[in-house]
Amino acid sequence: MNTPLREDAFHVDRISAPLSKSPLSQEMKLDAACELLNLGMTQFLTLSNKDLRKEDINPSLAPKSFTAKSDIFSSCEKNARVSGLRFNSKAPYIPRSEFSRRQSSSFSQPDPNDPWHFEKIDCIATSPNWDRLDGIRKWKGRNKKKGTTIYFEIDDPKFWKLVREEKIKASSHDRILSQAAFKLSGGNRTRIIFLRVLKYNDLKVSSAATLEELTSDLYKRFGDVSTSSASKLPLFPDQASI
Fold this sequence. Notes:
The chain folds into two domains: about 25-100, no CATH class; about 115-240, CATH 2.40.50.140. Helix content is about 25%, strand content about 20%. The protein is built from five helices and eight strands. The protein has helices at about 25-45, 50-55, 65-80, 155-165, 210-220; strands at about 85, 95, 115-125, 140-145, 150-155, 175-185, 190-200, 205. The protein has a five-stranded mixed β-barrel. Strands 1-2 form a two-stranded antiparallel ribbon. The longest helix is centred in the first third of the chain and has 21 residues, at about 25-45. It is elongated, with a radius of gyration of 28 Å.
């Protein structure tokens, strides 16, 4: 026979402060939203791009945010007085040596049907990438003639052979003289590939190529390609320039 439950069989403690049914004020909502945005942005700026990719946060998802982040660290890197960054008192300190890991090349993609252009580029490598298989982070350098920052790939087999043989002597700011291919979008170079590295510092690497040979190099990598008849010349540096 079941014993009926008595009304006082359960004891419930009184709630000392009843929950308020009044909605959050507009100001409280705004403060909460700002706090979340601040936390998210601090995390985004602090983590390296490699760590972000591990969390499936890729440049294609937020190209403007990645570009803005890259601009911040690029500007700080140009200022020799900036030894590191910290975005708030609780965020980890980012030393100057880690700035390059938070920079990226332009994320605008050129039209595959746009023609390739060629020119000789003399630059100082400010942030190299010795991992040839890294398809995300480009080399970063400063065009000596124009004084502009450029991002580029190196696709010269002879250069990478010398790297494997440890014959490339790298320093903090190496000079690279190359024959390069690039595409234009809105008047800006959207992709730069060093097809022939003529010299790396004082080391001669590859011989200068003709336009036909450079076009052949592109064909081997991309298949059918179109090139511009208005390529920048001279492609062949005189002996005094190297």
